[in-house]
C-alpha cells in the first residue's frame, strides 16, 4: 500500500493554474527526487502535501486514508515533516534546544516548571547516533557547518516520528564534504523506513540517493521513472522541454 497517493490534483490561484491534474504515489521508505525548473509547480505540490495549500480539485490519501490536509500542524500529526531550505533554526540555541524547540521536556517542582536539559541532550545525542552524524547535542547552531545544521533539522523530524519527510534543496550552498554528509543522512532515513521526497536542482544528488525521479514542467508531471531507467541527460531534456514526456 502506498504511503502517499495524490490523484488528479489541480491548484489554481485565480486565473493562474499552478498545478494541472497531477497524480503520483510514494511508497513507505522510498526516496523520490522531485525535479523541475523554477515555476514548474514543485513548491506548490510540496505545500499541498504539507498542508499550507489545499488543492482546487483532486484527492490525497495518506497511510491508506483519504483526507484533506488543512494545515502544517495537521500534516505533522499525520507524520509528514518538511525541512525547508532555510532550516528555520535558532542560531543562539544548542542542537538539542533546537530539536526540542516548542516541545521541551519539563519537570514540576512545586508551582514551578523547569527544563530537563540532560534528558533533552541525551535524546538528541541518541538521534544523532541513529543518523550517524558527528553533530553534538550541546554545540550551538551558530558554530555549525551546513551539513551539521541539516542534521539538526532532520533530527527534529525524527523526534516527531515522521513517516514522510519533504526536503527542500538540502544540498544547496554547502561544500562537497557537507553534501556527502547530507546524502548519508538521507540514506539513514531510508534505512529507518522513512520516505523522503527530495526537491533538488542537483542532478548528481538525485541520482546518488533516489530510487525514482519525478519531473515537473509548467504545472504538470512529465515523467515518473526509476532512476535505473533514465539518465541525467534525459532528465535535463524533460526539465527544459527538449523532450516532452517520458
From TrEMBL:
GO terms for molecular function: ATP binding; ATP hydrolysis activity. InterPro entries: AAA+_ATPase (IPR003593), ABC_carbohydrate_import_ATPase (IPR050107), ABC_transporter-like_ATP-bd (IPR003439), P-loop_NTPase (IPR027417). Keywords: ATP-binding, Nucleotide-binding, Sugar transport, Transport. Residues 4-243 form the ABC transporter domain. Coiled coil: none annotated. This is Simple sugar transport system ATP-binding protein. SMART domains: AAA. The keyword Cytoplasm does not apply. It comes from the Bacteria.
